[in-house]
Amino acid sequence: MRGKLREKNMRHTFLCQPGLWNATGVYLDPDGNESQAGGTMRVAHEQGRWQTEGVLDFAETPAEFGADQTDQGLPGRFQWICQMEPFPENGFQTEWMADSDRFGHMKGITLTVSNALVSTGESSDGRYVLSEWQERINEDHYVARGVILDRGRRVAAWALHMERSMAAYARGTDNRISARA
Fold first, then answer.
1. For 161-179, what is the mean pLDDT?
2. Are residues 143 and 161 in contact, defined by beta-carbon separation less than 8 angstroms?
3. N-terminal to C-terminal alpha carbon distance within the chain
4. Where would I find the H helices in 21-176?
5. Residue 50's closest CA among 6, 4, 92, 19?
6. CA nearest neighbour of 134 among 122, 146, 121
7. Of 9, 87, 105, 133, which sits most exposed with the smallest number of CB within 10 A?
């Protein structure tokens, strides 16, 4: 496999298959202080588009967000909805657009690089930049690492273990895209 960055037969289950994923791990504030974090992400596929809806709860609210922003989401919580194009057949890159309660409208790309999904994007005003990497451990487990910068300064970072919810998978969870999209 020397010199080969993308395995042609790598089958990603996160994003590329509908399902519900649970995440646990740590959130890091701008000063590097860690808080326990946990959340869920729902992946739906419908009519040539994919959508993810997610929430990440953590113990501490970053000072940058202030108490006056609780109307945009609960303290210690990020929420987002992301629309993306499916990966093209034999392709390794797709585009996405997301709306977040804390960072507004963002857009970017996601690439497959061997057993990882690598995403990068920025807010429409250019203030926030996102970088995230999700490594496939097996079909039901991924690890995720990510960071959001505000004009080059870290305002949020996370290190998560993601596990596909087998109960939801076995029930045949409703994987249609919500009307909120």
1. 62
2. yes
3. 40
4. 166-171
5. 19
6. 146
7. 9
